[in-house]
Write a structure and sequence with these properties.
The protein contains twelve helices and 13 strands. With 411 residues, it is an alpha/beta fold. It folds into three domains: 9-109, OB fold (Dihydrolipoamide Acetyltransferase, E2P) (Beta Barrel), CATH 2.40.50; 116-268, 3-Layer(aba) Sandwich (Rossmann fold), CATH 3.40.50.261; 363-400, no CATH class. The strands form three sheets. The chain has a five-stranded mixed beta barrel. Strand 2 (50-55) and strand 3 (60-65) form a beta hairpin. 19% of the residues are buried.
């Protein structure tokens, strides 16, 4: 081999140049690529772009879904999910890694809308939006029925026809909204909130007629489910046909299989009500006639003699009760008087012992000056030759003081 000739012809590339050539080659030949694989290492950057890896048993490839391509993705991308993606191949030059720039993706096996439905249903269920304990009963006889639907659709015609046929006295308020298309979910939620703000209706019917899964999709949006959950007015969900099930059905207080069925739930049939009224009226009169008849038969059993005997017996029984009460009262009064007399005599005896007369009876006397009857309590209260008087138990002695002697004890 001629080494010198090879060296003269060689073209040395930088890493950047080589990577750029590989990128151009991949992008030229890999413009329309479909790939299936399992998602791993999923992240959402602060920019909004989604980065993940697609893998199978033998290989992996990096993938990126830029924010501008995410508008049609209704389900949540998560690790372990099997996807089919469409896009073009490229190279991330900084790391020298090839990747697929995704512009479309869908779940493998399960449809994208069905997967989005299941994911949202599971999340709202965990939050408690479908809790049975919070569901409110529908008023039995609402005067005002609110309807959140398209004012030109088949659903409102069906509802109005049913209500007019069953009971025309009910007032219907229509809160018009889009029920299909990109802005429909936002419109439906706003109509439900508007109905609550105006607070006119006693119950709300929220729904539309039949259609494809895509047509009914606004009623599977989270914003509609939360508006129904937050509604203070009881809500009946009536979307599509009987086989159609939406997130709105789970969030509502009652699910009706069709808009017509919702109207039948809300408005009782006038003829049925009149028949029920007639049946109750007949049962009431029959019951009253039977009670009056039974009481009449009972009255015929009581003659004047029987009534007199019963009244006399009742009088005697009550008289015996009165006599027993009188005896009990007499005994209680006598016992109370005896106790009071004993306490009185005891108190009198105690007063007698402590009184001046009691003291005199025990041999003592009370001395006072004769001129002013002032009691003599000390030798200082009297002078020699002064007249005094001493009161005894049975009389008074008058005397003159001849001498005064001080006691040694001071008593």
């Amino acid at each position: 081999m001629d080494i010198e000739r090879i060296n003269l012809k060689r073209e040395v590339l930088t890493v950047s140049e080589l990577t750029r050539q590989v990128k151009e080659l991949l992008e030229e030949r890999g413009k329309d690529i479909w790939v299936s694989g399992e998602v791993s290492n999923y992240t959402r950057a602060t920019s909004g772009h989604m980065y993940f890896t697609l893998k199978d048993e033998k290989a992996v490839i990096r993938a990126v879904l830029f924010r501008g391509y995410q508008q049609g993705v209704r389900f949540e991308i998560e690790n372990g999910l099997h996807l089919i993606v469409h896009g073009s191949l490229s190279v991330f030059e900084k790391r020298g890694e090839y990747q697929i720039i995704v512009d479309f993706l869908e779940p493998e096996g399960l449809g994208a809308l069905q997967l989005a439905f299941e994911q949202l249903k599971e999340r709202l269920l965990k939050e408690g939006l479908f809790e049975e304990s919070r569901k409110r009963p529908i008023p039995a006889f609402p005067d005002v029925v609110g309807v959140v639907t398209s004012e030109t659709g088949a659903a409102i015609r069906d509802i109005l026809n049913v209500i007019a046929r069953r009971y025309s006295g009910v007032r219907v308020i229509i809160y018009p909204t889009l029920v299909q298309g990109e802005d429909a979910a936002q419109n439906i939620a706003e109509a439900i909130r508007k109905a609550n703000q105006r607070n006119e209706a006693h119950v709300l019917i929220v729904g539309r007629g039949g259609g494809s899964l895509e047509d009914l999709w606004p009623f599977n949006e989270e914003i509609v489910a939360r508006a129904i959950y937050e509604s203070r007015i009881p809500v009946i969900s009536a979307v599509g046909h009987e086989i159609d099930v939406t997130i709105a059905d789970f969030a509502a207080d009652v699910r009706a299989p069709t808009p017509s069925a919702a109207a039948e739930i809300v408005v009782k049939n006038k003829q049925e009500l009149l028949k029920a009224y007639g049946d109750l009226r007949s049962r009431l009169f029959y019951g009253m006639d039977r009670i009056v008849g039974l009481r009449g038969e009972q009255l015929t059993r009581y003659t004047v003699e029987i009534l007199e005997v019963r009244l006399n017996r009742l009088f005697r029984e009550k008289q015996m009760v009165v006599d027993d009460l009188a005896r009990s009262l007499s005994i209680s009064v006598e016992s109370a008087l005896t106790k009071m007399k004993g306490r009185f005599e005891k108190a009198v005896g105690q007063l007698h012992v402590l009184s001046p007369l009691g003291t005199l009876a025990r041999g003592y006397s009370i001395t006072s000056r004769a001129r002013d009857d002032r009691r003599v309590l000390s030798i200082g209260d009297i002078a020699v030759d002064e007249d005094i008087k001493s009161r005894l138990r049975d009389g008074t002695i008058y005397s003159k003081v001849t001498d005064v002697e001080q006691s040694d004890t001071g008593i």
